[in-house]
Amino acid sequence: MAASDVSASGNVHRGAWLRDFHYERGRILVKSTGVWMKNDLQLWADIGRWLTYYAFVRLRGFWARLTKPAGPRIWFTPYRPRPWYVIWAATVWGGMRLARSPADADAAFYFEDQTIAAPPPPRHARAFNFAVGDVSKTRVAQVMEEAFGYPLALDPATYVGEAVEKGEGNGLHDGRLVQCPTAPVAGKAYQRLIRTEGDDGWACDLRTSCVGGRPVLVYVKKKPAAARFSIQNTSVVVQAPEDVFSPAEMAQLERFCAAMKLDWGALDVLRERETGRLYIVDVNKTDTGPAVVLNWRDRARATKLLAAALSAMVLVRDIAPPL
């Protein structure tokens, strides 16, 4: 078997970036999540666009450090976020700093990619995401039903009709349609098929970034319905939450974040076309992005807003108004 492991150990988020990945048979493994990516032209085009954004954020952060008072210091544990995570971009853009210990920090942040983990004691009075230990699909569906009052999960052995089967893990993008009743597979979660596509055949995902337990922006993602589970999007635009959700729906999303104890993260939200109901199908406590297909204006607006919201959360200020 031809394989090249670019890491000297199994640790992730430490040392050189390449240590986070493993190459094997034309695929690249993201070690922290167990997700395999196809090594193709699309992947390298996305990497090229991301590197341009990375350089832009670095320059913006350098300018902020030169022209503004020193921002708050954040201690991340057990790992510091790599540059492809949204919180890294928000931290650098806002002129904030990465603290080396909780004693040197204005706030502590639990940062761990694992789907089910055991957060340590925060060791700081200002602590975020330390109560988020389980973001499995089963847990997300349970909390969503409690917050929204209607179910997403189903029993594949008794349900009749088309359903979605997906892995419990974070960021797998392995969903597929199955016909029920069917025997459940270990390690898989089963959910209602939420049809978001209109007459044009485009499926729509509402990736909702939340800071301080409330939505601060929405990435409206579109792709062909036949590729609804793909990681690739045909188009992405940024909108204010108030332009996408009603006040009652905003309250539902905030109840969900409170129940999940999610201070920072992104929710994958679907709006069922037939009923208009919202469904939260995934929680990303270590979200990556912004999406590489975003135009530069929307990418800068999103990063700026998230940086302001992060700083406000850390410093106990009101979060800036939406876009």
What is the compact description of this entry?
With 323 residues, the chain is an alpha+beta fold.
Mean pLDDT: 87
The quaternary structure here is single chain
Q: Rg, please?
A: 20 Å
| Secondary-structure element pattern, one letter each | EEEEHEHEEEHEEEEEEHEEH
Q: Which regions have little confidence, pLDDT < 50, spanning 5+ residues?
A: 1-12
**Distance linking N and C termini:** 51 Å
Strand percentage lies at 25-35%
Largest sheet: 5 strands, antiparallel
Based on helices, strands and strand pairing, what is the structural class?
A: alpha+beta
What sort of overall outline do the alpha carbons produce when their principal axes are compared? globular
Tally of individual helices: 5
Please give the share of residues in helix: 10-25%
Number of strands: 16
Spatially, the strands of the biggest sheet line up as: 14-13-12-15-16
